[in-house]
Amino acid sequence: MLFHLDLSHLKALGQPEGSLPSDIVAEALIALVFGIIGASIRTPELRGTTWRSEMKRRAKEESDPRLSFQLFAERAGILSQVSTIPEKS
Question: Would you say which domain of life the source belongs to (predicted)?
Fold first, then answer.
């Protein structure tokens, strides 16, 4: 906001060309440093990125790709229908 105010003031004076004044550059750099420090302090602790920590969060079906059809068939009731049909004697 202050940056826009300073540029508007320069434009009103008829001096918009050229480099920015040193106080504006200094203010922008100080704000950048404070922003980086503030973001670093407020950031939560990083989580582990090892394979073990990743597998703790995943379900069993995501860890073993061979189970995908079997779980699909169980959920859809395909295998259970075949096994629960009573035999006629």
Answer: Eukaryota
